[in-house]
Amino acid sequence: MSSFRTSPSPEPPWLAGLHSIRALLIPGLVLQAAAVALVLAYYFLPAAGGVFAQLAHWQSAGGYAFSAASTALCGGLVPFLFLRSQPETRAAHPWRHFLFFLFFWAWKGVEVDFWYRVLGWLYGDGHDVATIACKVASDQFGYNPFYAAPFSGLCFAWKDAGFRWAPVAADLRAGQWYYRRVLPVLIAVWFLWIPVVCCVYALPQPLQMPLFNVVLCFWSMLFAHITGRQNLKPET
């Protein structure tokens, strides 16, 4: 019978996070540049106006349903099929994980859409530096470390444990779970997503989810591809 290692890693979380950042550095900078390019296209490229207007219309008309469907597509379906197509990541993404990816990211789409609306209610819909800074700080140093990162960590640990809670509970009981499992991921996520959410909040609210999903699609493939070999190793 296999069990999962629950002893704390000897590597400090900031070192683990820095290792992830080093692996993600060039692709992450490319994703950030793409987000900046989309924002610049919105404000300074009139030829792209029709595309942005259509995306905003779909988002406004579809509401939470559109957010769920588009995030399930960009964060779940497309990355999962890509990872299944790669020999290095195929074994870590069997077909039984397919529904997990779809439902998890559909839920996250609704959740993130709701969060963006809450931030709009709290700080307004302005695109000035002060408003963007308030939203980024609340997002990356409130919502992310206190809810989004630990919740996602638990969900993915459950999936990686074969959809069994017992190994996850054992890992929690081992102590320092947040320190070992969440903080290293947060450090890598902050590296990529702080510049990206600056771009997200620089756009009107109906375009925030579409930009989030464009980056999410490539981030999901990239992060899973790089960290696929770093999952918990079973020991007999």
Descriptive account of the structure:
The protein is mainly α. Helices cover 80% and strands 2% of the residues. The chain has a two-stranded antiparallel sheet with strand order 1-2. Helix 2 (49-85) packs parallel to helix 8 (205-227) and helix 4 runs antiparallel to helix 5.
Tell me, what's the shape?
A: globular
Please state how the strands of the largest beta sheet are arranged side by side.
1-2
Specify the helix fraction band.
over 70%
Q: How many domain modules?
A: 1
Query: How much is the radius of gyration in Å?
Result: 18 Å
Which consecutive residue ranges, at least 5 long each, have pLDDT under 50? 1-9, 229-236
Number of helices: 8
Describe the structure concisely for a colleague:
The chain is built from 8 helices and 2 strands.
Considering the chains and any ligands shown, give keywords for the structure.
236 residues, 8 helices, 2% strand, two-stranded antiparallel sheet, mainly alpha
Secondary structure layout:
Elements: E1 3-4, H1 13-44, H2 49-85, H3 87-90, H4 98-123, H5 129-160, H6 165-173, H7 177-201, H8 205-227, E2 234-235
Antiparallel strand pairs: 1-2
Helix pairs in contact: 1-7, 1-8, 2-4, 2-8, 4-5, 5-7, 7-8
